[in-house]
Specification:
With 103 residues, this protein is mostly beta strands. 6% of the residues lie in helices and 52% in strands. It is built from one helix and six strands. Strands 1, 2, 3, 4, 5 and 6 form a six-stranded mixed sheet that branches.
Length: 103
């Protein structure tokens, strides 16, 4: 769920739709710590965090359920955003955050 703290690194993110959709974009970012953030960075959009590479094999397939494999993630705060296109052409999108704290 949005804002949840996990005690283990997840191995996948699963998106479930009401009807088949084509996943067209995903973005996972590890957020900068509060100490590394600055007002100047906020204004210029540079505090977006570090991009986590996810690959592309899961993109552009049409299904009601899509699984995105994840690499091992370190402790920290993450944001995930996605965009998909329904069979009727409507774009659907969402985002959520989660934290990983093993200790």
């Amino acid at each position: 769920q949005d804002g949840e703290t996990l005690i283990v690194s997840p191995t996948e993110i699963v998106l479930q739709y009401e009807s088949p959709a084509k996943l067209i974009k995903v973005d996972l970012r590890k957020q900068s710590s509060t100490q590394d953030r600055s007002l100047f960075g906020e204004i210029l959009g540079r505090n977006n965090g570090e991009s986590v590479p996810l690959g592309t094999a899961f993109l552009l397939t049409i299904d009601k359920r899509q699984s995105i494999p994840l690499p091992a993630l370190e402790d920290g705060s993450y944001s995930f955003s996605w965009r998909a296109m329904g069979e009727d052409g409507h774009v659907i999108k969402g985002n959520f955050t989660f934290n990983i704290k093993v200790n």
